[in-house]
Design a protein that fits this description.
36% of the residues lie in helices and 24% in strands. By secondary structure, the chain is α/β, with parallel strands linked by helices.
Length: 612
């Protein structure tokens, strides 16, 4: 969740690290800091708040140097403050560390270190870790790399760390377990970051550190070993990311840009995977497990947040076309149960970042019990694609806005393809129907493009309800996951309390909330539940609720009842989530902007949740 940037080389490090921290702002944070070494000495600058506050704090001070570590902190242990900001120093102020993750046994370690004379300045678990490294180095009389290795074999928890030694300014130590860390390889220089976004401007060659690996990074070389002291040969990979994908491209916010990128991202997700003219789906990433998919009797989907909503949409699709029983689980709950899993099951793990801690832990549980694990992920080289048996990338491109938009529709697109692929393998769909569905699926990006033309209409509707305190989103069938996702988008970025419900469940409680001040958003397209949803709309109107309806183009029945209607192109019910979600993303966006909220970096949220 926090952002890590490190640099060692021949360039001025400060602007590289500052720019890198800004690239990582989307991950969510509350404070920032940088430690930098130059020929004259050493400086640390830390400030609660935005990276821009840190820049202002260090203005007119010495920021020269060719080796530096920087960090954006998302508070876990200790409130956001200058003191709790990273980097943190060892007891003798020689070693400095930046850290993403949680050290679970920090309290026990801290008590022991206090008994040995250590004094702590912050409330963080991170400071305990660097004191531990110092203590081990002093006791064992060893070099820093070995001291870090021994310390990491002592701690319990998750971490990505970079350590700087004031007395040895020619090296950095980096390590990871359960939290991502990437090393960019240049000529006479190295870059370290939580993800590749701060690195792409300088090099396309990267090494993704694996769990339980530690790296000694110098200007002229790199040594990687495991925590069991076995030296590794790191794999250098080439980034597919483009620098322009990290810029706003003329849009006011990344979120708006990413909403408008969906025609392309959905198309890229399908590219090379469907052959409509012969009615065929090809998924090379899971081809090896085609027979397993053909014979599977139960699929479990595990995910968190928006990815969980995509999983629910996938449940409808896979059961409808593949005729396989599907269960959708919150990874954060799944991992703390004693779930019934066997080697006959397939588990599908969904994560935009590929680093979601709860999802990774749930994968390990399922693997231990013999299940086949398939991943759906956006980030090439992330942890989840590496620990699953097979999977499918979404190819949505970098998503900088914290509130997921194009990643959601890309995940739903992959799940649509997977559902039709399973049906194709099992023979539960006719060739003519598959051909028809794939032919229509190919038109979805164009239909999404037409939806985006309604931006001004949606902005106008947003202005009418922007001051609401609560909002209800209702849908039936595959419209229910859309309702959940619409509610999540609104609450994430506008801070309006919003809930998604199956429309039929409204009468079992939520109807008590409805009055003339309550906006109720209905997914009311012409599908198998259309008449039932009309009845639900009448129930809301009878209680003076404000009805905003997502309707099929040309609808007249709902238009007569609703206060506001947003039309979407007519399409097969299978593709409802891909179309109906777009207006809800725009609605949430415009409401948030009108309320003066930070759309791209909502308070308290992080893009990649790498801690429990």
């Amino acid at each position: 969740m926090c952002g890590i940037v490190g640099y060692i080389g021949f360039r001025d490090a400060w602007p590289i690290v500052i720019k890198g921290l800004k690239r990582l702002e989307y991950r969510g944070y509350d404070s920032a800091g940088i430690a930098i070494i130059n020929h004259e000495g050493f400086n640390v600058y830390k400030k609660v708040g935005k990276v821009s506050y840190l820049e202002a704090h260090a203005e007119n001070q010495d920021t020269s140097g060719y080796i530096a570590i920087g960090h954006t902190r998302w508070a876990t242990h200790g409130i956001p403050s200058d003191l709790n900001s990273h980097p943190h120093a060892s007891n003798d102020n020689r070693l400095h560390i930046i850290h993403n993750g949680i050290i679970e046994n920090y309290s026990t370690l801290k008590e022991e270190l206090i008994n040995r004379g250590h004094k702590f300045k912050s409330e963080t678990d991170t400071e305990v870790l660097i004191h531990l490294v110092e203590e081990i180095q002093n006791i064992e009389q060893t070099d820093l790399l070995e001291a870090v290795r021994l310390a990491l074999n002592t701690v319990i928890g998750a971490y990505a760390i970079v350590i700087l030694d004031r007395e040895n300014p020619g090296q950095l130590i980096a390590a990871r377990k359960g939290s991502p860390l990437v090393i960019g390889v240049g000529e006479g220089e190295y870059f370290i970051a939580s993800d590749a976004t701060p690195i792409i401007e300088y090099t396309k060659n990267v090494i993704y550190l694996k769990d339980n690996e530690i790296a000694l990074v110098k200007r002229d070389g790199l040594l990687v070993k495991r925590l069991d002291n076995v030296i590794q040969t790191p794999l250098i990979q080439e980034l597919e990311m483009k620098l322009e994908s990290l810029e706003k491209g003329g849009f006011e916010h990344f979120m708006l840009k990413e909403i408008f990128e969906q025609p392309r991202s959905i198309k890229d997700c399908m590219r090379g995977r469907i052959i409509p003219e012969i009615g065929k789906v090809e998924l090379g990433g899971v081809k090896e497990y085609a027979d397993k998919l053909k014979n599977v009797e139960r699929i479990i989907i595990i995910a968190c947040g928006t990815s969980w909503h995509a999983g629910l949409a996938g449940e409808y699709l896979i059961e409808e076309y593949g005729r396989v029983s599907v269960e959708v689980e919150y990874a954060s709950e799944f991992r703390y149960r004693n779930p019934i899993i066997s080697e006959n099951d397939i588990v599908i793990a969904i994560s935009q970042s590929g680093e979601t801690a709860d999802t990774m832990a749930a994968i390990e549980i399922a693997k231990e019990r013999g299940a086949t694990i398939l991943g759906i992920c956006n980030v090439v080289g992330a942890s989840i694609p590496r620990i699953t048996h097979a999977g499918v990338y979404t190819h949505a491109g970098p998503e900088i806005g914290v509130a997921s938009t194009k990643a959601f529709t890309a995940q739903v697109t992959v799940l649509t393809l997977l559902a039709l692929y399973i049906a194709q393998q099992k023979g539960t769909i006719t060739s003519s129907k598959l051909t028809r569905l794939l032919t229509e699926l190919e038109t979805i990006p164009e239909k999404v493009q037409t939806l985006l033309a309604d931006n001004d209409l949606i902005k106008s509707i947003a202005s009418k309800i922007k001051n609401a305190s609560n909002c209800l989103f209702l849908g039936r069938g595959s419209g229910f996951p859309v309702a959940l996702e619409g509610a999540l988008k609104l609450k994430e970025i506008s801070y309006i309390h919003a809930e998604g419900y199956p429309a039929a469940e409204m009468k079992h409680g939520p109807i008590a909330l409805i009055d003339e001040a309550m906006p109720v958003v209905f997914i009311a397209t012409k599908n198998s539940s259309y008449d039932k949803v009309i009845s639900n709309i009448q129930e809301v109107k009878a209680r003076k609720g404000i009805v905003i309806a997502i309707v099929t183009q040309g609808d007249t029945k709902v238009r007569e009842m609703a206060d506001y209607c947003i039309e979407i192109p007519d399409a097969d019910e299978a593709f409802l989530p891909l179309l109906a979600t777009i207006p809800l993303q725009l609605l949430a966006y415009h409401i948030a902007v009108m309320r003066g909220c930070n759309v791209d970096q909502p308070r308290n949220l992080a893009k990649s949740v790498t801690v429990e």
